[in-house]
Amino acid sequence: MSRKSGLTVIHAPIQAADEGEERNQNSAPSGPTIYHQYYAPVNHIGQANNAHFGVNNGWIGQTSRSSPAGHWSGVPGWGPSPYLGAPPSALFSSLNPILDASHTRNLSISPPNSKCFAGTRQRVIGIVLSWAYADLHQEVPHILWLYGYAGCGKSAISQAVAEQLAREGRLAASFFFFRSTGDRSKITRLVNTLAHQLSRARPEIAPLIENIAREDPGLLSASTSSLVVQFQHLVLCPIAAIRDSLCHGPVVIVLDGVDECEDKEEVVALIENLIAFFNEDPLFPLRFVIASRVEDHLHRELHTSNQVQLLDLVGHTSDEDIKAALEVSIAKEMRGRAMPSDASWPDWWDKHRLVEHIGRSYIFMTTIIKLLFAPSTKDGLTPIERLPHILELKPNFDDLYREILEPCMHFPFFLDILTTIALAFKPLSIVQIAELLDIGTFKVTNVLINLHAIMQVPGDDWSPVTLWHTSLHDFLTSERRGGPFFADPKNHKMIVRGAIRIAASSSLSESHRYARNYGMNHLFQYLQTVDQNLTCYDGLLEGIMPDLVKATFQNNQTALEVACRAKEWKLVSALVNAGANPDTRFQGSEEGSHFMLRATMGPRKWSTSCWIRVRIQTLSHPNHVSLTGASMLSPLPGPLPREMLTWSTDCLHAVQTPT
Predict the structure, then answer these.
(1) Which residues, in sequence order, are bridge partners of residue 366?
(2) Is 356 among the domain residues?
(3) CB–CB of 626/619 below 8 Å?
(4) Distances in Å between the alpha carbon of 142 and those of 63, 187, 274, 287, 605?
(5) Do 383 and 456 share a structural domain?
(6) 175 in helix, strand or coil?
(7) Within 10 A of 115 (CB to CB), how many other CB atoms are there?
(8) With bands split at pLDDT 50, 70 and 90, how would you rate the model's confidence at 49?
(9) 192 and 50, same structural domain?
(10) Is the C-alpha dihedral spanning 584, 589, 595, 597 positive or negative?
């Protein structure tokens, strides 16, 4: 058979049927399935039924007929994925997925760092897996909402469930949201990431996803397609294409920490549409595990739908589980230490008091263990001597954070380092923190080694420092709760100084990459804290303006272009007054839509009052307009693209000039 375009999916029985035997095309193949990885185009096949050949590489499923009649054991898509390699590189490049968002991420540097202790949470994990394995015809809800308070083990259970489903070949994808981690705290790249994982878990649909992406590139960006439309085309449609092979075993998507996603409206829209979709197609072979705290926008959508099964984790967290986890943790920490070897410490009463004190909070238990076995250089106490003091702590995260932070306040740059970690748009390494603050790395390390009970401090200077739990971020960014440790948004200015300095340098370091990507975001956050009645920012940004004019940021945009696109016109004025070139051609515009700032400002800086007399005249060309001033000092140059009309009016209003 000659090569043909299409999807390379072949199902050919090993043994041919007897001559004259009539094949029942609706019956399932029997016998074990043998998978062969095949990396070249299909050029010649002797015979194949229902085959669709193409240049895309795929997998070949073959079945024997040795099993008893009627036995189905070769369902494509059931069991571990036959193809564990990466999807086509073109698809990977197009989707641009987040690689550290799934259950396979490195937990130590990509939080949440949560795993169930051996022998714990078996009952609740069993409930989730029983729901996931239920036959489609049992009409169980398509969504399981796992909810509970902070620290009760939601992420650990999500991790365990995702790992088990992956081993069974039933996991379509997983995504672990986490606040203040850049793209993982937003929903923008969620669908692309899920589609990428789906193409790995179900390689037979990778070519389909690739074709969809090629035919409609707009689906790949949240700026050109809604989240709902993206999800429909890149996730639901590909699964629909193989739904017949999943009729006995639906696949599952695990979404953890959904409450930590900043884009709450988009989350609500996605859940609403999923519920409506499953109501219309109750046999669709896809289910969702959603794990989160109870927040109003989630509660409204998930609490009353008949497509949602509720699982309150608080009711499934027992003292026995906490005790088992506690014993495992203590035994691990005591290995190699000069501690009693006869199991006399901690005794039964100490463990009982610890279990009561922890209050069924796994995150609190983990933090208590870290504090209990902290190096003696901190307070001169051994774990045995420290235990009574820990038992006096109130089981409240805020109190715990104060207990750990207060002894460190005398360290040089302590508050600057803490504030930088709290206000950063993504986790920073020790080197990045030091370079942003223009201090030595040893000064950062000297502070962080005392905070390992509430932060994940890496063993090197280049891996990110992450918060152990998002409640610490909430504590540090709340003036009422944080008190002296409050990370005031005004301190974005401190980060701006370092970021702009680094962005203007010729460095190619990770700090330089962060400064280019987020330096202007820090500046905008700081400008929101200043008096909005100020007429200009010239004096406000004194000292950083030369570097700000010189630096380039994301997509090689100048500060002038970034400010214009954000419509921060007082900043535009300050940059022009500081010497920014208004003739700079903007980056990233479509062909024919490049423009120069001077075109929007005109050859002179007019007074804002002149704009009142500006008349807009539409040219014969439908995509352009020209601007003329009845009594201006000189006419505006034209024609301008119609899309720039708003920019022109705003710029004229914003530029500070004498009348």
Answers:
(1) none
(2) yes
(3) yes
(4) 31, 21, 9, 5, 61
(5) no
(6) strand
(7) 14
(8) very low
(9) no
(10) negative
Burial 122-137 (b: 16+ CB within 10 A, else e): eebbebbbebbeeebe
CB neighbourhood size of 412 (10 A): 10
**Dist CA 54 CA 239 (whole Å):** 20
446 and 389 assigned to the same domain: no
Distance of CA 198 to the CA centre of its chain: 17
SS3 category, 582: coil
In a domain, 500, yes or no: no
Q: What is the per-residue burial (b if ≥16 Cβ within 10 Å, else e) of 281-299?
A: eeebbbbbbbbbbeeeebe
Residue 447 and residue 337 share a domain: no
User: What is the crossing angle of helices 383-391 and 348-358, to 10°?
Assistant: 40
Q: Are residues 57 and 97 in the same domain?
A: no
User: Does 158 have pLDDT greater than 90?
Assistant: yes
Tokens describing residue 242: 């193989």
Of the candidates 385, 285, 346, the one whose C-alpha atom is nearest the C-alpha of residue 75 is 285
Q: What is the pLDDT of residues 576-589, one digit of tens each?
A: 888 888 777 776 55
CA-closest candidate to residue 233, choices 208, 201, 199, 261: 208
Q: What is the CA radius of gyration of the chain?
A: 30
Residue 432 lies in a domain: yes
In this structure, the answer to whether residues 621 and 639 fall within a common structural domain is yes
Answer left, alpha or beta for residue 182, where phi above 0 means left and psi between -120 and 50 means alpha.
left
Q: Any idea of the CA torsion for 330, 334, 339, 345, to the nearest 10 degrees?
A: 10
- Tell me 90's DSSP state: H
Owning domain of residue 299: 89-316
| Sign of the C-alpha dihedral computed for residues 518, 519, 524 and 530 taken in this order | positive
| Domain shared by 96 and 240, yes or no | yes
How far is residue 487 from each of residues 7, 417, 422, 451, 473, measured CA to CA in Å? Answer: 54, 10, 7, 16, 9
Q: What is the tens place of the pLDDT at every residue in 368-415?
A: 898 898 887 777 888 988 999 888 876 567 888 898 899 999 999 999
Query: CATH number of the domain that 263 lies in?
Result: 3.40.50.300
Q: What is the dihedral angle through the alpha carbons of 162, 167, 172, 174, rounded to the nearest 10 degrees?
A: 30
Is-contact 101 184, C-beta < 8 A?
yes
Q: What kind and span of H or E run contains 599?
A: helix 597-601
Task: Give pTM, 2 decimals.
Answer: 0.60
In 3D space, the residue among 613, 541, 520, 536 whose CA is nearest the CA of residue 569 turns out to be: 536
CA distance 89 to 110: 24
114 within 8 A of 159, measured Cβ to Cβ: yes
Instruction: Please say whether the beta carbons of 322 and 355 come within 8 A.
Output: yes
